[in-house]
Amino acid sequence: MKIKEGFVLREVLGDYLVVAVGDRVKEFNGMLTLNATSKLIFEGIKKGLEIDQIADLLACEYEISKDKAVSDVNSVVETFKKLNIVE
Amino acid sequence: MKVCYKIADVLIEINHLFDSVARYMENFALKGYNGVCDLTISVYRADVERAMALYETNSPDHGECLLILAKIAEFIYKNKNGALFHSSVIKVKNKAIMFSAPSGTGKSTHARLWVDSFDDVICLNDDKPFIRNVLSLPICYGSPWQGKHRKGVNDSAVIEAICFIERANEPKVERLSAKQALPLILNQMVRYYENENSADQQLEFAVQLINSVKVYKIYVNMERESAIAVRRGVLGDV
To answer: Which tens digits make up the pLDDT trace of B131-167?
Structure first.
């Protein structure tokens, strides 16, 4: 799984925004605001980490159980899939 | 037909294909000017045909008109720290107040309420003004593209406020935070996210704009009371 080429994450006014650049703008002309959790997941995917590894990061960062972390990562990944941000 | 224009304080030489487009833009022409321009646009038939397909119009002169607008907007964005900002703008007390909303929401109607209600208000541009950050001042400029009612003047003013309109029964004014304003501002600007650098440039421009103007959500109806309520909320002088 990876973030499709042309999606970039930026911190603007304290918010985390995903915008499309280049040819990707034709299919995604809006922007997505991420909270801190989904930003961490976006960055994890961008780095090429597996869901399990991202869940470990999340569990450590927020002191939650591994099961809860896996569930959270899967939920955010599903949203990214629906928005065609990941492939 | 070659004509020089000054639009948003940018000198532009245009070699028109259609004289009708030069007439459409004539209020912004610099008659008799033969000096150096910042931008030269030569319109060719093939460009117009591409523009007609892109903007879904059957009219060649309308195609040329939109092609010129797109080229000027791109130049101003890339070279003049500015943007085309879809809105209806009034000028009052030498300040610009911009009304923005999706098409059909009533930005022109609300601007007209101000013009009809107050003697010191004129319509600066009814559809496609330019904004630029000039020496840290946010300036709004009229343009030849003035909407279907063709309302506007060749003038400019420092932007006092940008108001995003929503229809409501009772008028109300809410000041927006920078975070609330950001998506609304970005949605009304033509985007040139060709690569990461150009996206960063435009996001930075939006942040500069938000930090230098007041941004409001205004809830308005079609009555004069809306203009009075918004003026009271934004300028506080009625």
So the answer is: 999 988 999 999 999 998 899 999 999 999 999 999 9
Pairwise CA distance, residues B129 & B98, whole Å: 9
pLDDT at B192 over 90: no
Tell if the CB–CB gap between B194 and A22 is shorter than 8 Å: yes
What is the per-residue pLDDT for A5? 93
Q: Which two tokens stand for residue A25?
A: 């703008």
Query: Has residue B224 got a pLDDT over 90?
Result: yes
User: Given an 8 Å threshold on Cβ–Cβ distance, is B193 in contact with A13?
Assistant: no
Task: Test B207 with A12 for CB contact under 8 angstroms.
Answer: yes
Could you tell me the CA-to-CA distances from B20 to A61, B52, B79, B123, B190 in Å, in that order? 64, 16, 28, 24, 26
Which chain A residues are within 8 Å of B207, Cβ to Cβ? 12-13
Distances from the Cα of B62 to the Cαs of A54, B129, B166, in angstroms?
52, 18, 30
Interface of B with A (CB under 8 A): 178-179, 182-183, 186-187, 191, 193-196, 198-200, 203, 206-207, 210
* Through-space distance between the first and last CA atoms of chain A, rounded to whole angstroms: 6
**What is the ipTM score, two decimals?**
0.80
Q: Chain B: residue nearest A9 by CA? A: B196
| Sign of the Cα pseudo-torsion (B123, B190, B11, B62, in order) | negative
Residue of chain B whose Cα is closest to the Cα of A14: B179
